Structure formats: structure tokens, C-alpha cells
Amino acid sequence: MLEVNDSRCIACGGCVGVCPVDALELAEGRDIIVDNNKCIDCQICVRFCPVGALKVFEKDGKEKPLTLMKLPSKGF
Ligand code: SF4
Ligand code: SF4
């Protein structure tokens, strides 16, 4: 699951644009809201965030090491 560190976030909105499943929303121009039912833990937003405000945690509570999941091949 993804967690946002609100004290770091500068509300740039970039993570909202890069999420492939629309799991992020910038509410009232200042708070990032995560829908962890949609999030697929791809960490694209974690890599994108310019201030390190995003982290993905495993079910056991440990921080997920920064990796990128393989996206499905389009076959060409
Ligand atoms: S980890 Fe991936 S799916 Fe989850 S909110 Fe970030 S960009 Fe979206
Ligand atoms: S990319 Fe980082 S700083 Fe920008 S809105 Fe998302 S969490 Fe906040």
C-alpha cells in the first residue's frame, strides 16, 4: 500500500498524472488522497515524487524496496 508523507508533499500534483490506474487525487489543491484499492504498488509515483513524499509498504509493514514492476508486453 502507498503512503503519503504530508509534511514533505509540496502538492505539485505530478504523482497524480503518472499513476497508471488513477489511484491518486489532489484534493483541494493541497492533499494527496490515495485509493489503495486501486493502487497496484508499481512505485512509478514513488520514483517521480521530487521530494520523496511517497513510499510503498508491504502487508507486513516493511517498506517495499524501490523496484519497478514489469508492465505487460504489447507483443511487438
Ligand atoms: S504505486 Fe503505482 S499504482 Fe500505486 S499510486 Fe503510485 S503510481 Fe499509482
Ligand atoms: S509528486 Fe510528491 S510532492 Fe508532488 S503531489 Fe505527489 S506526493 Fe506531493
Question: What is the fold's blueprint, element by element?
Answer:
Layout: E1 2-4, H1 14-18, E2 24-27, E3 31-34, H2 44-48, E4 54-56
Antiparallel strand pairs: 1-4, 2-3
One iron/sulfur cluster (SF4) binds near residues 19, 21, 39, 40 and 44.
Write up what this structure looks like.
By secondary structure, the chain is α+β, with helices and mostly antiparallel strands. Helices cover 13% and strands 18% of the residues. It has a single domain, classed as 2-Layer Sandwich (Alpha-Beta Plaits). It has 2 helices and 4 strands; from the N terminus they run βαββαβ. The chain has a two-stranded antiparallel sheet with strand order 1-4. The longest helix has 5 residues, at 14-18. The protein is globular, with a radius of gyration of 13 Å. One iron/sulfur cluster binds at residues 2, 19, 21, 23-24, 34, 39-45, 56.
CATH level 1 name: Alpha Beta
Query: What structural class do you assign from the helix and strand content?
Result: alpha+beta
Shape: globular
Helix and strand run: EHEEHE
Radius of gyration: 13 Å
What topology, given as strand order, has the largest sheet? 1-4
- Low-pLDDT stretches: none
Reported for the largest beta sheet, the result is:
2 strands, antiparallel
Q: What's the CATH topology name?
A: Alpha-Beta Plaits
Number of domains: 1
CATH architecture classification:
2-Layer Sandwich
**Quantity of strands, as a count:** 4
